[in-house]
Amino acid sequence: MKKRLGCLHAHYSNIEYIENALSSYDVELIHFVDPALMYRVTSDEKFKVVDAQNKVKEQLEWIAQCNADAILITCTNYIAILQEEQLSISVPIIKIDEPYFEFICNIQQPQTILFTNPATVNGTMERLNQYAYNHQKSLDIEVMVINNTFELIMQGLKHEYDQEISKFLNTIINENRIISVAQLSMVDASQEVENMTSKPIINPLDTLISYIVNLLKIDKKS
Question: What is the model's pLDDT at position 218?
Answer without folding.
Answer: 94
